[in-house]
Amino acid sequence: MLKAAIIILMLALVASLGSGFYYLMMDQGDKTKRRTFHSLGARLTLALALMGLIVYGVATGKLGHRNPWDGGPIPISGPEPGSQ
């Protein structure tokens, strides 16, 4: 459930970035329209929520890392050298 929330927040960030670009192009510097500024505020809020969710996941152990190099050496299968 935590990973799904992270993915949803990431998609919302991309959508907010797209809407900010759209408003920037449509308003063309109009001082009375503040839609680009509001989009930036929404994107900042989403980014903070995403960071908080990731910190929570790592702190509680629900998110971790499983890298191939963290497992240690892989044992070699087959006959040992010199056993013949």
Automatic annotation (TrEMBL):
<dbReference type="Pfam" id="PF11137">
    <property type="entry name" value="DUF2909"/>
</dbReference>
<feature type="transmembrane region" description="Helical">
    <location>
        <begin position="6"/>
        <end position="25"/>
    </location>
</feature>
<keyword id="KW-1133">Transmembrane helix</keyword>
<protein>
    <submittedName>
        <fullName>DUF2909 domain-containing protein</fullName>
    </submittedName>
</protein>
<feature type="transmembrane region" description="Helical">
    <location>
        <begin position="37"/>
        <end position="59"/>
    </location>
</feature>
<dbReference type="InterPro" id="IPR021313">
    <property type="entry name" value="DUF2909"/>
</dbReference>
<keyword id="KW-0812">Transmembrane</keyword>
<keyword id="KW-0472">Membrane</keyword>
